[in-house]
Amino acid sequence: MLMPMPRKDTTKGPAGARRAYHHGDLPRTMLAEAVRTIDRQGIAALTLRGVGAKLGVSRNALYRHFANKDALLLAVAAEGFRLLRVDLQGAWEQKGGGALGLDAMGAAYIRFAVQHSSHYRVMFGRALGEAGEAASPDPSASGDAFGTLVVAIDTLQRTGVLQGGDSLQLARYAWAVVHGVSMLAIDGLLRTPADVEEFTRFAVARVRTGIGA
Fold it and tell me: What is the pTM of this model?
């Protein structure tokens, strides 16, 4: 886990509040509540006031951590990209790199989108507006999710598994394919988990065929 889960406090909050939290846990707890709200009601329903009401904390406490809804959404997106990077790197390492590692990264990407669809919709949706630019995948940012894919492709080019050429463009191609499959999956256009799994295998295999040496 990237961050500790909030610790419960036995202190009772305002009427209707779910629970009270130690002050130091509030930003993480707000993120978790924002994700729950998006999952249940969609991004449009998310408000700082609504999050505060669910958690039983004052508006002043909320605004000390997030100036507005865009700031909270940006934090949700940034958390999503951190989690995605961990999943991609883990998939690559678990398979020992190589062609199987690349396939595993593609499958891990789609699995992340399905399992964290609320994060994913914020990460790649339009709700952030200009505020979302800082959380979008940036090829020049060291250690981000997209950079992890670029590094993997560079490695496979050096070992002759993938064709030569612009590794950034090859990474964009691979990203576009798995992003498309992910959107089909979370929008319900791939009707069952078995459909998602079958098409995931098909898509990641075609990515490797398309950019293979």
Answer: 0.81
